[in-house]
Automatic annotation (TrEMBL):
Protein name stated in the entry: Putative GTPase/MT1543
Molecular function GO labels: GTP binding; GTPase activity
Keywords of this entry: Chaperone, GTP-binding, Hydrolase, Nucleotide-binding
InterPro entries for the chain: AAA+_ATPase (IPR003593), GTPase/Isobutyryl-CoA_mutase (IPR052040), GTPase_ArgK (IPR005129), P-loop_NTPase (IPR027417)
Acidic residues biased stretches: 250-259
Highest taxon, organism lineage: Archaea
Residues in AAA+ ATPase domain copies: 48-198
Length: 372
C-alpha cells in the first residue's frame, strides 16, 4: 500500500466512513505493510473517547454486560466502539469466537461498531494491536470504547495499560474466583461487579470483595460501598458522595489549605448487576462516570496517558530490536548453531550475547562520536 493510499484511508476514516474504519483495524490487526503509518496519522486525532476495560472469568456474563452498556450509551445519544479480545485459533491465529452474535441489543445500529480480535496467545489477553485499534475508534469519533477481554485466567492485567477504567466481573458464589483475584486482577480493578446478582450467594460474594478491597487499601479506606452518583464530586472536583468517592479529608468545615492539599483517593466500588435484564446498569454507568470525574480531578487521567505512551514506546522498541537481533542471528547461521557451540562448551550464552550485540554497540558508539 502506498503512502497516498494510506492517507486516503485515514481521511475517509476521519470523515466517518465505517468501511474505512473496519479496513484500517483489519490492517492494524494483521500488521499489514503501512499499518504503522496509518496509526501515526491517526494519533493526532485521538484523546476524545472514554475507554473502559471489562475483564473477569469465563461465564461471568461479560458479553451480555457489554451489550447492555452499549445500548445504554446509545440511548443517551452517544456512539460506541467495542473490541472483544477472543482466544486465538491454534491453526490460524484468528479469533475463535469471532463470528458469534454478541451485541443482540444493538444489531443493525451503525453507531455501535463491534470488532472481535485475536489475543494471539499473549499473556494478558490483549493483542498488541488492541491499543492501536482503540486509537482508530477514538480518531473515528466514538464517544465510548469498551474492551472486553478473553477472560482466560488471571493474567489480564495488560488491560490496564489501554483502558482508563477497569471493571472486573465476578460470579456469585465463585469463592475460588474471588480468591484468585488476589493473584493480580484485584490490583487493577477500579470497579468490581457481581453479575447475575439474582443468583444465590451474591451477597456473600459482595462481602468477600469488600473485605479484600479493604485489606488491599489503606486502613483509612472507606468501606461504605453503597450507591454513589454524580454528587461524588463537587464543582471543584472534591469528593462529597458516598462510598467509592475521592476522599480529600474534608470534614465538612470550610476547606483549609491542608484539605486542598490532601490527594484524591479512589476506593473501588462493588456493584451488583443482572445483565440479562439490565438491572444495575444505570448505577454502573453512574459509577463509571464518577471514576472518570475522579481521573480528571486528580490528574490521574493525564498520568495514565503518559505511562501508556511510555510503555507503548518501550514495547515497540523491544519488538523492533528483537526483529533486528533475529535477523542478525540468522545472518550468522541461526540460534541453533550458537546453541550447539554452547552445548559443546566452545562458548557460553553470555559470550554469544556479547558477540551478537557488538555491531549494534559499535553503531551507537559511532553515532555518539559524530554527535560530539
Amino acid at each position: 500500500m502506498s503512502r497516498a493510499v494510506e492517507s486516503d484511508l485515514v481521511e475517509r476514516l476521519l470523515d466517518g466512513e465505517h468501511r474505512a474504519l473496519a479496513r484500517a483495524i483489519t490492517k492494524i490487526e494483521s500488521q499489514s505493510p503501512g499499518y504503522r503509518d496509518i496509526v501515526s496519522e491517526l494519533h493526532a486525532h485521538t484523546g476524545g473517547a472514554s475507554v473502559v476495560g471489562i475483564t473477569g472469568s469465563p461465564g461471568a456474563g461479560k458479553s451480555t454486560l457489554v451489550d447492555k452498556l452499549a445500548k445504554h450509551y446509545r440511548d443517551q445519544g452517544e456512539t460506541v466502539g467495542v473490541i472483544a479480545v477472543d482466544p486465538s485459533s491454534p491453526y490460524t491465529g484468528g479469533a475463535v469466537l469471532g463470528d458469534r452474535i454478541r451485541m443482540a441489543s444493538n444489531v443493525g445500529d451503525m453507531d455501535v461498531f463491534f470488532r472481535s480480535m485475536s489475543a494471539r496467545g499473549q499473556l494478558g489477553g490483549l493483542s498488541t494491536a488492541t491499543a492501536d485499534a482503540v486509537k482508530a475508534l477514538d480518531a473515528f469519533g466514538k464517544d465510548r470504547i469498551i474492551i472486553e477481554t478473553v477472560g482466560a485466567g488471571q493474567n489480564e492485567v495488560d488491560v490496564v495499560k489501554t483502558a482508563d477504567t477497569v471493571v472486573v466481573l465476578v460470579q456469585p458464589g465463585s469463592g475460588d474466583d474471588v480468591q484468585m483475584l488476589k493473584a493480580g486482577i484485584l490490583e487493577i480493578g477500579d470497579l468490581f461487579v457481581v453479575n447475575k446478582a439474582d443468583m444465590e450467594g451474591a451477597s456473600r460474594t459482595v462481602a468477600e470483595l469488600q473485605e479484600m478491597i479493604h485489606l488491599r487499601d489503606d486502613p483509612r479506606a472507606n468501606l461504605d460501598t453503597g450507591h454513589h452518583g454524580a454528587e461524588a464530586f463537587d464543582d471543584a472536583g472534591h469528593g462529597g458522595g458516598h462510598g467509592g468517592h475521592a476522599d480529600t479529608g474534608d470534614t465538612g468545615d470550610t476547606e483549609t489549605d491542608d484539605a486542598l492539599d490532601e490527594p484524591l483517593v479512589w476506593t473501588p466500588q462493588v456493584l451488583e448487576t443482572v445483565a440479562t435484564t439490565g438491572e444495575g446498569i444505570d448505577e454502573l454507568v453512574e459509577t463509571l462516570d464518577d471514576h472518570r470525574d475522579y481521573l480528571d480531578a486528580s490528574g490521574e487521567l493525564a498520568e495514565k496517558a503518559r505511562k501508556r505512551a511510555g510503555e507503548e514506546i518501550r514495547q515497540l522498541l523491544r519488538s523492533d530490536v528483537n526483529r533486528l537481533l533475529e535477523a542478525e542471528l540468522d545472518r550468522r547461521g541461526g540460534v541453533e548453531e550458537f546453541a550447539d557451540a554452547v552445548v559443546e562448551k566452545e562458548t557460553d550464552p553470555y559470550a554469544v550475547a556479547e558477540d551478537v550485540l557488538e555491531p549494534f554497540r559499535e553503531c551507537l558508539d559511532d553515532r555518539d562520536d559524530r554527535d560530539d
